[in-house]
Specification:
Helices cover 26% and strands 27% of the residues. By secondary structure, it is of the alpha+beta class.
Length: 168
C-alpha cells in the first residue's frame, strides 16, 4: 500500500483532558505503519448534545499511514478503549474520542467508516484545528475556511497549553 496522509480528530472531556490527548497521540505514534507528523493547537469547547457535561479539549493529528483506513480506525477504537472510553447508544462524556476524518483522497461509505467524515463541515471544534494543519484543504468543493466562516456559531477558546511532537 502507498503512503497516505490522514487526519484524526481527538477529543476529551473527562479526567485530565490534556493528558488524555497526549497519551492518545503517543499510542497513535506507536502504531506500526503510522507516522505522527503534526498536532494542531488545542481548543476548548462546549460538550455538544450532552447537556451540562464538562467542556471538551479538541485537536487534530496529521499522520502518514501505509495501512488501510479501516485498520487505522480499528487502532483508534483500541486507543479509545485503552483510555477508558465506554461506548453506548447515546452521546456521553468520554475520556477519549478519536474520529478518522480524512484518509488521502479516499471516499468511502461503509457501515464501519465514512470518509471524509460526514460532519467535518458542521463542527467548529473539528474545522478549526484541521484548518490549522491544512489551511488550503478543499472539502466538497470549498476551502475549509469558507466552511468555517459559514458556521452559524463558533464557540471555541484556544487552550493555552499545546502538545508538541517532542512530548510524544
Amino acid at each position: 500500500m502507498s503512503v497516505e496522509q490522514a487526519y484524526i480528530a481527538l477529543g476529551s472531556n473527562l479526567g485530565d483532558r490534556r493528558e488524555n490527548l497526549r497519551v492518545a497521540l503517543s499510542f497513535l505514534a506507536e502504531i506500526d505503519d503510522v507516522q505522527l507528523l503534526a498536532i494542531s493547537p488545542i481548543y476548548e469547547n462546549r460538550a455538544v448534545g450532552m447537556g451540562e457535561a464538562s467542556s471538551f479539549l479538541n485537536a487534530v493529528a496529521k499522520v502518514e499511514a501505509t495501512l488501510e483506513p479501516e485498520s487505522l480506525l480499528e487502532h483508534c477504537l483500541l486507543i479509545e478503549a485503552k483510555l477508558g472510553r465506554e461506548r453506548s447508544s447515546s452521546w456521553q462524556p468520554r475520556t477519549m474520542d478519536l474520529d478518522l476524518l480524512i484518509f488521502g483522497q479516499r471516499v468511502l461509505d461503509s457501515e464501519q467508516l465514512v470518509l471524509p467524515h460526514p460532519r467535518i463541515v458542521e463542527r467548529d471544534f473539528v474545522l478549526k484545528p484541521l484548518m490549522d494543519l491544512a489551511p488550503q484543504m478543499m472539502l466538497k468543493g470549498k476551502r475549509l475556511k469558507d466552511w468555517y466562516a459559514a458556521l452559524p456559531e463558533v464557540e471555541l477558546t484556544p487552550f493555552a497549553d499545546v502538545i508538541s511532537l517532542s512530548e510524544i
